[in-house]
Amino acid sequence: MLKHGLQTDQDLKDGAPDLSGFGDVNDLTFGLGPDKPPTSAIIKKEFQRNIIYHMSPLEDSTLAAMLVKPGPFTALLTAKFPKEDDEGVESVRRVFIKTAQDRVVKPEQQDAMIARWAPVEVFTLDSDHSPFFSAPFLLCGLLVKVAASL
Fold first, then answer.
1. What is the H or E stretch that residue 122 is in?
2. I need a surface site. Which of 2, 33, 97, 143 has the fewest CB within 10 A?
3. Which domain of life is it from (predicted)?
4. How far is 136 from 39, CA to CA, in rounded Å?
């Protein structure tokens, strides 16, 4: 996440998933009407394994495909911290866990977000977008390490 959300074209380039290289992969919901921007999105089931779970065990990606729900598109694109609360926001220690083989938020996008709002520490997992499936023990170890350092 970028501190002040996705307000500019550069913010979108750095922080929003670009899945255009995979073709028409999203199912969009227009909860406010067909003439308004989409309110939620989900990657079509036939593309989920290749895009989100390509390093995850097949049984985990199969279960995930059955349980995944549409992401709140509008909420994710408009999430931001208020500018007047910069001091409070900056007082919270943040770490970033990069997912090196991520096809949703690509490594160069992760690097751009890190450069624009540097965390205290950066860890890298050789995983897909879902390290809780593709590298659960490594992810757990990192989370324990981070929690112990607070």
1. strand 121-125
2. 33
3. Eukaryota
4. 31
Task: Please state the length of the chain.
Answer: 150
Alpha-carbon separation of residue 33 from 28, 39, 57, 70 (angstroms)? 12, 9, 38, 17
- Local confidence band at 83 (pLDDT 50, 70, 90 cut-offs): confident
**Residue 149 one-letter amino acid:** S
Longest CA–CA span in the chain (Å) reads 49
Tokens coding 119? 């965390």
pTM of the model: 0.87
Quick one: which H or E segment has residue 143? helix 136-149
Domain boundaries, the chain: 9-149
Partners of 122 in the β-ladder: 96
Dig out the tokens for 120 from the structure.
């205290």
Q: Which two tokens stand for residue 4?
A: 């002040």
d(CA 49, CA 26): 14
**Helix and strand counts by DSSP (H, E) for the chain:** 8, 4
Count Cα atoms within 13 angstroms, Cβ side, for 135.
Answer: 21
**In the beta sheet, which residues pair with residue 99?**
125
